[in-house]
Design a protein that fits this description.
The chain has 200 residues and is α+β, with helices and mostly antiparallel strands. The chain has one domain: Umud Fragment, subunit A (Ribbon). 17% of the residues lie in helices and 30% in strands. It is built from 2 helices and 12 strands. It has helices at residues 14-43, 170-173, and strands at 44-48, 63-67, 81-85, 99-106, 111-115, 118-121, 124-125, 150-151, 156-160, 176-177, 181-191, 194-199. The longest helix has 30 residues, at 14-43. The radius of gyration is 26 Å and the shape is elongated.
Length: 200
């Protein structure tokens, strides 16, 4: 007969085992949710494109990933595609959501004007290989000419949509402030209802 004192520890009952499994599972889910929240808030954030103002580069309902961590508007460069908060003077009434996406055309302190459907920044013709060759460029940069170009104020950026003929952008509501920029588009991961990865 075995002495109870020499026997090993009693096996936990089924109820205790299930309780431990539930606690571990709940903790795992909680950590995953918190981690996803931190990534979304501080590192990368997914967005979808609600309008055709950035076609053909970004189509309607495309999904993009925006870099937020290690990002500063001081690092924004000409040609970057950025997501930013809706400007206070935006009154086109055709764009959904509180955030917009456009391409940076001119940086703080640079001059900009348009002539014959082309954009000039600091007096030089802006190369725009991302635009379709036969696409109409839409309204010109207002109140600006080669003799009197528009100078972008310090801390602000002049942004345009790639679909110039159908984009409500800085031509309508002026430049955006650097502090309104949420992040830079780094990846398209969904296009034409299919997974499609394109790094910017």
């Amino acid at each position: 007969m075995t002495d109870p004192a020499e026997a090993g520890p009693a096996e936990p009952g089924p109820r205790r085992r299930w309780r431990r499994v539930l606690i571990e599972s709940g903790a795992t889910v909680l950590v995953a949710v918190l981690l996803a929240s931190v990534i979304r808030t501080f590192v990368f954030q997914p967005f979808f494109i609600p309008s055709g103002s950035m076609t053909p580069t970004l189509g309607v309902y495309d999904r993009i990933l925006v870099q937020k961590a290690f990002f500063s508007w001081h690092d924004v460069r000409e040609g970057d595609i950025v997501v930013f908060s809706r400007p206070p003077l935006e009154n086109c009434g055709q764009q959904d959501g509180d955030d917009l996406v456009k391409r940076v055309i001119a940086l703080p302190g640079q001059t900009i004007y348009s002539a014959s459907g082309s954009i000039y920044v600091n007096g030089r013709l802006l190369a725009e290989p991302y635009l379709p060759h036969a696409d109409p460029l839409g309204p010109p940069v207002p109140h600006a000419s080669s003799q009197h170009p528009y100078r972008v104020p310090p801390g602000e950026f002049y942004v345009l949509g790639d679909n110039r003929a159908d984009s409500c952008d800085s031509r309508y509501w002026g430049p955006i402030t650097g502090s309104s920029i949420i992040g830079k588009v780094v990846l398209t991961w969904w296009r034409n209802s299919l997974p499609d990865f394109h790094v910017f």
